[in-house]
Amino acid sequence: MERYEEWDVSIPPLPPRSRLYRLKPIGIGTPYVESLTSYIMRLAESHCVTPQALVQREIFPLWNQTGTIQNYSSWFSKFWWTGSPVLNGVSPITAQWVQVLQTLTSNDNLHFLTMLTWSELIGVNNLLRRKKAWCPRCFQEWRQNRQIVYEPLLWTLSAVNICPCHQQTFVTLCQHCQETQPFLTRVARPGYCLHCMRWLGNNLVSSSTETMSSITDTFKMHQWQASVTSELLAAAPKLLGPPSNEQFAITLNNYLKDYARGHINVLARLLKLPYQRLQRYLQRGHVPTFDSLLQLCYSLSVTPLEFTVAGTISSQETRQFVLDLLPVLSSGKRKHLTDDDVQRMRQTLEFVLEVEEGDPIPNLQQIAQRIGYHVNTLRNRCPDLCHAIVMRRMRIGDDARNQMRQALVDALANDEPLSLKAVAEGVGCSCASLYKYFPDLASSVVTRYLERFDRERIRQRLQEVLSGNERTPSIRELARQLGCKHYFLERNFHGLYKQIVLRRRRERRKQYQDRMERTYAEIREAIMELHQQGIYPSRRRVVKEINKPYALRSKEGLEVYGRVLKELGYPTETIKKVGFGKN
Q1: Is there a single domain that holds both residue 226 and residue 345?
Q2: Does the predicted model carry a pTM greater than 0.90?
Q3: What is residue 345's three-state secondary structure?
């Protein structure tokens, strides 16, 4: 008898399947790790649906299983515009959404797309931006290199203002329509403006690393903040466990013991923190905000990663500031200056000038106040050293002004006009500073930016709105369509602007009147129907019948209600003429 090969026809065990596609997060373990809001947008795009459909049909029902949220419409309206930034932070809502998304996608590492790893070390306040900020050059490079366009977690933190890769400040307004961008909206797409749907990337900002590195001490601090925050985000997956608040308090107490000899006021002055706040940090249970943690680490010349994870004091010398090292030479009492007093004064000013070139130094007023003399005394007794300090401070200011001038010249040379605000953000100063030092260049940039609009086309569009019979759009809606701001229309087309505003106001008033007339007819119909059924038409029953809670809150609605009741023979003496009383 011939024997055939035996086959195992039993069904092999299948691994568990996820409800949604297991989309891999971008950049975990790198400084440019993706944010959770960006992941939600890409997850919706991978399923060919909008973020609104994904959140409302998949994420929200699983998150709200307990039924804590009843008014869905109000909650979603608030969430899309103001509530979504919290998803990238350290709050309990963040942890709940991470758990829901991990359940739906079978990804177990989505908490690295938020700041949850550091939740015991930093507070919720001032951690995240309310609106998006981005680096246009990063977007443009990813698009040109055919890489996935996304939004890093680093861009969502309010303490980070500079791109570590391109050393330029983040942009917060669309270069086309000058509108801000919420983090997560109903139809959001990474790299594109929510309002005009145009691309947010470009290579127009030409601020080089070499030029930017010498302008101001503030910019240098921003560079340091971006660098150490990138290091913090990259290290999160490599930690054995999340750092604890207890370790933070222990490390801070070590600094208090070794560098301030146990004096809290000395350490508070070095860290530029209020005494009471530092005292709370030393007691376990209180945590700083993220920007306070960065300021604290910057003052101690350590990175946040070293401070929070290593638990040991860095071998680097603790950062000191010139004013804290200057001795008090006079008690403030009037006395004749001796040669020894003048010699000590000169030694103090020479010590100030020994600070490395490029580092900030205090001005003469601050030095005089610190050592106990009037500033005129310093100028009279040590004119050469005072002049050297003034010239040293002016050189730092000259570098900043040279950078401003170069940025304005580059803006005028670009193919596409840039707004003065975009130029100011690229340099790290205000528009007022550009106008103050370079009024002609600043005015040229503004004029060139305004000339990008085709005024004749805009005029024709406004006239079409006035001559047509269609619904009149709002001024802001028209401005978005034309790629400008509403106040540009008001300034340059004031007559047409005013006509459109008045026409839309009349239309909206007419719509309101029509809507209220329909509501009053529904009130009358509901009262008559309840009366025919033998039920007293109370205000509560009428509102429930027409399903419009606001209907009887107006004076006109109450008058209609009272008039119909009077026609049917019901007493109307107790009906409130106006108000929002209980039904």
Answers
A1: no
A2: no
A3: helix
